[in-house]
Amino acid sequence: MRQPTRPVEVGDTITAMELVVDPEKMKVMAALLADPTPIHFDTRALAALGMDERPVNQGPLNMGYLQTMLARWAGGRERVVDFRVRFLGTVLAGDRVRASGTVTALSDDERGRVATCEVSLEVLGGEVAMSGQADVVVEPAGERA
Q: Is residue 3 part of a domain?
């Protein structure tokens, strides 16, 4: 995990993360979540519903992409202290997605310096699939000068 190399400022862009949604990982996640919804793994069920032939990615995986981006930027998962998103669109197997964010506010509390960030997950060449806000500790209280 890497930490910001200079003090975080309002307006800073969080290092974006891009990836291609892997259908095999989607199947594993469906099993781990005990999610019996066939749109996540069964192309025949999708065809029967008149949907795209590519399975629909699970919401927790989409949220995980954003949380991973934040954790990499801030220096660890424990630094993501609040996370709220809205589901706005669909992510399908094989889609290329970009998790991105911007610092919109900074505050100090008992945890240290906290950045409030606007975040989004975009299907490249498509639509924003998820957007929201997160609070991330960028300088823990014990590490402040």
A: no
User: pLDDT-based confidence at 85, cuts 50/70/90?
Assistant: very high
Give the angle subtended at the CA of 128 by the CAs of 14 and 106, to the nearest 5°.
30
Say if residues 103 and 10 touch (Cβ distance below 8 Å): yes
pTM higher than 0.90 for the full model? no
User: CA 93 to CA 124: how far, in whole Å?
Assistant: 13
pLDDT mean over 23-39: 83
| DSSP string covering 63-109 | HHHHHHHHHHHHTSGGGEEEEEEEE-S--BTT-EEEEEEEEEEEEEE
Comparing 12-26, 27-41, 45-59, the range with the smallest average pLDDT is 27-41
- What is each CA distance from 129 to 24, 73, 97, 120, in whole angstroms? 20, 21, 9, 8
CATH of the domain at 93: 3.10.129.10
Residue 1 included in any domain: no
Residue-number span of the structural domain to which 40 is assigned: 13-143
